[in-house]
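Example 3.2
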Amino acid sequence: MKVKKVLAVLMTLVLMFTFVGCGKKSTTADNTATATPAATKVTAAASAGAADWSYSSIKLGEDYTDTTATIKFYHNMTNRDSTSGGDGSLQGYIAEFNKEYPNITVTTESEATFAEDSLLRLSTGDWGDVMFIPAVDKDELPTYFVPYGTTDEMSQVINYSNAQAYDSTVYGIPMDATANGIVYNKAVFEKAGITAIPTTPDEFIADLKLINDKTDAIPLYTNYAAKWTMGAWDAYVGSVSTGDYTFMNQKFVYTTNPFSNPGDGTGAYNVYKILYDAVAQDLIEDDYTTTDWEGCKAMINNGQIGTMVLGSWAYSQMVEAGDHGADIGYMPFPISVNGKQYAVAGANYSYGININSSDINKLASTIFVKWMTEKSGWYVQEGGLPTSKTAEYPDLYKAFENCTMQEDASALPGEETLFNDMNTESELMINSGGNDKVMDIVVSADTGDKSFDDIMNEWNQKWTDAQASLGVEVKY
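Structure, written as tokens:
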């Protein structure tokens, strides 16, 4: 998708008209979304006084309570959306929202293939008013989405304000955030005689062996056949394995041979080596090519699986998959840096508002997004960390009490797309759908056609070649 830089300037003009409103506000207007050019919309918004509000200034339950609009929310949560055969809990939240805003009708559309289809829909503009922002480059955000406010302003009211920000402006509000770790079955651990959560790769592999020897459970379920689940391993190559919250977005691209063995059980090398060793030592399912993503939820719930490497978003799905939800636990990834464990609090999908929606739908959408963020409690159901600054952490993170929780620092100014460029040039696609490379680790460990060091050497060479091709100066 071609970047339209001029729209960033136009959106800055929109922000110039934004100021905090006072007193009780109400709005009723035509809610038909249009494809009016952005320049015209700036003028219309200013002349109609439609920009006398902002995300941070709206007081839920007090302001704009008689707003009348129909908006559409397009997302990936098919398991929560009754229109896609889900449990309908999303519709339950909307019903609660309508108790405060009865005249804002929220329709929904969800797709299991959202990650791919949303990009196509985004380019056409045919998706509605609110969507979970798909994997677009940061400099494209002003082309498609309404700004919520500056990063300085928004950081006062939400966590992870940099998740979907560009040029010091926030275009997305995270649904929640995930602390990347490992889902495990506490009853299986107890049966295997495991009395403490593992904190190093060696301890984790030793625990998998205990599960293998003393229980009937699969020690580590790879979810290989689902493919997308394999990309979860990428989440640990930054702060989790280095202890440095600036590494991922500010240093990784400048690091020489980042997949080499540091010799102390840390770094990207040891993240992926856990997977290689588990496969090579037969500590996974019998046939990884036939794993079942939906089926594994009930399997870990009833004690047939010991561990799975997934973000905390998966926790609630495992809890709800059977009668033994109390047996499901979540623990930090087993790497320690100088004796300390770290976890990254990474934003989930973010709510974006269509820049081409009508002014009234932009207001209604902002109210809906703020209500979902501050009042719905959806993050608790999904096992996520809260976006709102005023919300509390769910109980599932008790195992993280001695773990340092960090948010990855943003890329330095002017370097917002450099990591994406390195990913594309190297074809490694770290944290960007690079499932194939992780799947190759499983195959190589199973067949023995490549040693783990051979694989890491190949990755280092790809990274080095990409640095040379893009003219990236190695600093670390």
